[in-house]
Amino acid sequence: MVARQREKLLKVARELVPNATSEDIRNPQDFSELLNDPLFNYEDGLLVGLLSAQAALRTSAPIS
């Protein structure tokens, strides 16, 4: 799910900034087009939520 959301976010970013890279979507403040776009921010929020859930699951797993 995380990988798919990253792909989707990059696709949205490239509609706004054609040469956007995966690094660019981690630093959207460098591009006003990304920072001010509601769809980009929504998709970015979904990715952050997925990453947070993934981190929570990893830290709660018992260590054997």
Instruction: Summarize the amount of helix as a percent range.
Output: over 70%
What's the end-to-end separation, in Å?
26 Å
Element pattern in H and E: HHHH
In total, the number of strands is 0
On the 0-100 scale, what is the average pLDDT?
Answer: 94
Residue windows where pLDDT falls under 50 for at least 5 positions:
none
Q: Strand portion, in percent?
A: under 5%
Number of helices: 4
Radius of gyration: 14 Å
Number of separate structural domains: 1
Largest sheet: none
Principal-axis shape equals elongated
Give the helix/strand class.
Answer: mainly alpha
Q: Give the oligomeric state of the chains in this entry, treating copies of one chain as homo and distinct chains as hetero.
A: single chain
